[in-house]
Amino acid sequence: MIIKKMVLKNFFRYYNRQEIIFSNDTEKNVTVIKGENGAGKTTLLSAFYWGLYGDVEEPLHIDNMLNYMAEAKMNNGSTEEVFVEIEFEDKDQVYTIGRRQRFIKRNNMGIRLGETELNVTYTDTNGNEKKVDYPETFFNNIIPEKLRGFFFFDGERINRLAQIDGKDEIKKAILDILGLTNLEMMDKDLQDVREELAKEIKKYMKVDEISLSDDYTSKLEDKKNFEDLLLKRKYELSKVLENLKEIDNFLVEHNSDNVRINQKERKSLEEDIAKLKKRQQDNKKELIEHTSKNFKNYLIAGRFTKVSELLEEKRKKGELPSDIKIQFVNDLLERKRCICGRHLTKGTNEYETVYELKKIAGRTELDDAYIRLTGLIQSADHQKDSFFAQYNKLLREEVNIADDIDVKSKKLKDISDELQKSPEEKIKEYEELRRKSNDDRDNLNRTIGKIELQLGEIEKDLEKLQQKLKQANLANNQAQEIQKQLSVLEELGQLNSEIRNLFIRSTRENLDKKIKEVFALITRKDYRIPVLTEEFELKITSLIKEDNKAEVLSTGEGQITSLSFIGSLVSYSREKAKSGLLSDFAGGDFPIVMDSPFGNLDEIHTANVAANIGKLASQVIIVVSGKQWRKEVEENIFDQVGKMYQMVDGEFGGTSTGEYTLVKEVNI
Amino acid sequence: MKSSLNKSSEFEHYYQSLGNSGVESLFLTMKDVFMLALILGGIEDKRKPFAKAGGEPIKLNIFSPEDRNIMDLIALSVTNDIDILTKEQEDTKFTVIEEYANGGMDTLINSITKPVPTLDNLKKFIMSFNIDDENNKKVDISDLINEAINNI
């Protein structure tokens, strides 16, 4: 998608008709719009929102969108219109989206007249203008509304992506943009069809089979309900975690030294406890492994003396291991000749003598067993002491860890008690809220665990019921046919989920690679490396630290990390679309529209972002203030700029009716 | 020739919960539960035939060479007949093994699954074997196990 043109009429600060033509050049793909504070830079972002999605960003409000100057020039009873028209190209087709709102002046005030009109038109292959039938949902199919924040955004506010809370947002974005929600929807569709077929098959079933099928259908419904519930609880949990983070931020940045120090200590205690709990788990695993592997040897040691005696007796008698083997005796008898050369004919003394040897001759497998068992008994006796030596060591370690956790938990409680006694009401209030949020978090985690357990059980039951249904002796062909379809659906469902998981994994790996590339272009600290973790957290690690722990980011660093993510997402999504792989739903070519991209950045980051901004997407539109348009921006961005505009204050024409903005093209 | 060993349906769910329930398992695998039960059955000389097998049988090739040696040790101990270890009697030997493991399961589940399987129960059970061997050489093992059970 490439945005070609935007026309604004009487939209907030933009008086009368204003037109911006964006650069479509593949090399010089950046359009710069410069404006001073208050000139309507952020309003331009809202023009995109209103045009494409029908709403505006706070503090703007649709009721006040009629330009002040236009309103002033109206007579009571006369009407005026506000419109935003955006022309863009997507997959070789040019579309125009126009949104229009009429206003009427009554009692010297412009008020909205009628509903907002929306029109989407395109030119067909014969050159005829055509109207899109469902304009309201049209653009949502190109960039879903929930994703617009990734393509039209305020540069100063995107640093949130590089925070833990941002991970669900990131995961969702990846799934949505790369079309993975289609796979999820397919899953849902498959389930719906399964339910339908399960109902259908009942018509052809015997009584007991019907109850089986009812059971199956109701389990499917249960599954759906539990999945919905799980989503809800996870969402609630994410909100609680957000709250906790906000509280912690408030406390850690508080102007009282005492509060700040307490909060820092609490953070470090919480981290210690998390590590100890991990060690506790590892220790438990080790204990289980040690028991499973070695307890049996301990148990047998010294307890099977009867066997040792039996084997010893056999050894003394010379039976085990035997001096002579049955096979050897059999061979002599078969060859009818002894090794001493005598003939062995049945009925002779020589034959009988050799034949008698079979009674004391041993068998290879028993000799083997003798060697194995005596070896086992000896080694068990040798290792006997080592079992409890290691076992007791692990138990002591367990007690030590539990003690450490106790001590640290007590300290945590002391800190919380101290903060709750704070003379400042706000601290008390936050601390109380923190305790409550911690309880909520624990409860929600438990609830989520329970739901997941129940879901696992339902899955197992469904599998069993499916097996039973398969085995049911279905009365007629039709029922058998439906049963076959059900089995195919089941397999499709499994395949779909395998594909989905594989796709998520490979997408995350590829994106991680891309983010590293983009980040390396922008950062001035080349020892810092961004990582998109398996949990979809975007974090920065340091090459000069060994613990691979996430670094604490400044706002500026958060901003470039987020920018790297968006740039990577856009470029990855474009490559995916071009590759043709799963092309119906994978990826697309998207522009980036950014307000204040250099807002919180220092000089070097600013220069690096400016030098690489055009590489972030096929088309980049940036809105900057004069202050942000510094020397290092101008020098580095210049070769990439295809169009440039300046927002200027309009002339009042002698009447003091208010300010308005004109957008004028600047020759480059 | 047997290629796997059966568990009785009576204890199948214990096998699952003790050795096949992910992070909640108290043993690495169901095979480890089987081996411990077998040794306990052997020590107590408790044989418990069963008519109905439960769940998937455990493939013989899952057992380590050491496990197979322990099976031979128990088979020899309970039959007192070296011929139980010959090829001809292999199937009989494995039936003996299955039935002794089944007998040992009684002891194991009584000790560690009441009311639910917990690591603490397992720990107590294991610690009940931690005796000073020098002073207790002649103690009867089945008494010890009974005592351990009573203590839980």
Structural class of chain B: mainly alpha
N/C terminus separation of chain A? 25 Å
Q: Mind describing the biggest β-sheet of chain A? A: 6 strands, antiparallel
Mean pLDDT of chain B: 88
Categorize the overall geometry of chain A: elongated
- What is the rounded Rg of chain B? 15 Å
Parts with pLDDT < 50 across at least 5 consecutive residues of chain B: 133-138
Numbering strands along the chain, what is their spatial order in the largest sheet of chain A? 2-1-4-5-6-7
| Beta fraction of chain B | under 5%
Global geometry of chain B:
globular
How many strands, what sense, and barrel or not for the largest sheet of chain B?
2 strands, antiparallel
Helix coverage percent of chain A = 55-70%
* Secondary structure: number of strands of chain B: 2
Which class of secondary structure composition applies to the elements of chain A?
Answer: alpha/beta
How would you characterize this protein structure?
The complex is a heterodimer of chains A (668) and B (152). With 668 residues, chain A is an alpha/beta fold. Chain A has 17 helices and 14 strands. In chain A, the strands form three sheets. In chain A, strands 2-1-4-5-6-7 form a six-stranded antiparallel β-sheet. A six-stranded mixed β-sheet of chain A has the order 8-11-12-3-13-14. A two-stranded antiparallel ribbon of chain A has the order 9-10. The radius of gyration of chain A is 38 Å and the shape is elongated. Chain B is mostly helical. Chain B is globular, with a radius of gyration of 15 Å. Classes of the chains: A alpha/beta (668), B mainly alpha (152). At the A-B interface, helix 8, helix 9 and helix 12 of A face helix 2, helix 3 and helix 5 of B.
